[in-house]
Amino acid sequence: MNTLEQLAHGFAVAFTPVNLLWCLLGTTLGTAIGVLPGLGPALTIALLLPITYQVAPEASFILFAGIYYGAMYGGSTTSILLNTPGESATIVTALEGNKMARSGRGGAALATSAIGSFVAGTLGTLGVAFLAPVVVKFALAFGPAEYFSLMVLAFITVSAVLGSSSVRGLTSLFAGFVIGMIGVDLQTGQPRFTFGTTELLDGVDVIIAAVGLFAVGETLYMASRRYAGKDEIVPLKGSLYMTAAEWGRSWKAWLRGAAIGFPIGAMPAGGAEIPTFLSYAVEKKLSNHKEEFGTVGAIEGVAGPEAANNASAAGVLVPMLTLGLPTSATAAIMLSAFQSYGINPGPLLLTTQANLVWGLIASLFIANIILVILNLPLIGLWVRLLKIPAPQLYAGILVFATVGTYGISQSPIDLVILYLLGAAGFLMRRFDFPTAPVIIGMILGPLAETQFRRAMTISNGDWSVFYKHPLSLTLLTLAFIGLVGPHIWSFIEHRRRRGPEHVPGDA
Amino acid sequence: MSTINHPTPPLRLAMPELLVGIGLLACAGAVAWQTLAIPVSPLYSKVGPTVFPYLTMVGLVVLSLLLILAAFRGGWQPEEEKETPTDWKAMGFVVIGLLANLLLIRPLGFTAASVIMFVLVCYGFGSKHTLRDALTGLVLALAAYFGFARALGVNIGAGFIENQLNTVIDAIAGAFGA
């Protein structure tokens, strides 16, 4: 309807010199942390959360969104040249991309991933602009019971359906619930899980949780794994230009990847792993060059998953902006940034914060253009970043972890909590527990509890509200299928063929 | 998609996984203990502050029992994870670095404590150039202090290094101002 009008207004916000600078800063920083193994957008945005006390919401969300998109671009560079996925969403890119780099076609792999990211990112952002108002119309009809059921569905999909094990995923989620409940209960004023200490009354800051799990835990894990094989950086050979044949093989894969990635990202399920794996499977099936898959590297196997990854990253913004429902660790931390401004993301956000939302969406288009420039002509710069030796890289990460944590209240207690969470993060990494559900559970758990209590108050304590409302019942049924379905499926598969495949997945 | 990743016949008890399961059960116990400690006002008896803690506790107990069951069935660790030995020495140095940071950040200030942590962590990761690491750590910590923390308006306190530098900066600023 008036989406284009709104979008034009958004560009007016995003095109102010200051906001363009924030966008440039965010995309540059995002590419850098995407390239560096061990650093991700969730950790970076968490460390930068204090900026919300300094600048206008438009500026910080343009910065955060730039980091978010930039990390997706940067992550593929690491996957292709180092075979160590810089981001979990680029695991699949490493499969074919690194093979291509090894057979001297690294340039083409980088080009197809950057241009594919641009195409899919732009399509995905268009999708956000046009889908968000539609979702809002639906969401306005949601009552507390529906919201609660929707959150239950999101909990199940992010923890139980994605990843290698539903039990371990749910364990992470429940651990997140516990962390989220620490502190004073906002409705009754009762302290919960504080172990009688005053330091825990304010709860555990999301910065500490994210930094502990992602920075300290990761560093401990990398230190413990020093005996594991090391990956070599493949020197960048060949031109960055793709031949006509490579273009011909790429563009369909980009569009298919975007078509797979965006809807999955936009569903209240989120996660970039599933669409990338799906896109990889589709490209492998449709390719005329099947012999290149897994041997010299097939360009479709890079183009499709990279496009899927970026389109789903855009899609995740739809439930985030319209329903206040974060489905990835990064989105959860962005939600806490909204909370820090006292803004509640939800159906009203598009009208009450039109400047912010449309400025953000417009800045994403600009970010995509900046990113394709940063990641193609300037690729040599990022390759150099890969040469930072591991000891100094991880020691440096810990220094920044200290700044972020100790800066909150100059309390050594915060550092103690940080290190305890770091130890937990190490164990989770070591025993293959996903870490993203912890952050999602911690942020979304209290919101789900609020909706639950609201629904129960309205219904006068009658539990039937959750299954008497048809929409709520549908959502809960979907959640149940999501929880039980894969087990039944794998049981049937198990009967036919032995051994379910082990799918790698982490935060 | 299931926890039974090893359909290979010899289903042996996996000790590390069992410990993880028992540890989680202990955490569920702590949650139970803290839930019972939440004072409930009769005014909020309908859906009070304890409903979600109880649900979470039940969830954690069920999940830890499932994990213990999986441990009895041979555990879930991928083979390559089990085959790589843990580098305890490297981890030890990282932990010592973190503890040093925790203990020294108050008395010495952020920069000094960070340099010590930086050197210890680098050493743990196998760096042999301790002096160079100390200089790198100093530059990085100062960059973090003056760039990151100042720009974000975060106050991370000041130790002797920061105080000296702040005095110098103020002096220079004063000289230019005058």
TrEMBL record, chain A:
Keywords: Membrane, Transmembrane, Transmembrane helix. The chain crosses the membrane at residues 32-53, 59-82, 108-132, 138-162, 169-186, 206-223, 316-338, 358-383, 395-421, 471-492. It comes from the Bacteria. Pfam families: TctA (PF01970). Residues 20-440 form the DUF112 domain. The keyword Methyltransferase does not apply. The keyword Membrane applies. This is Tripartite tricarboxylate transporter permease.
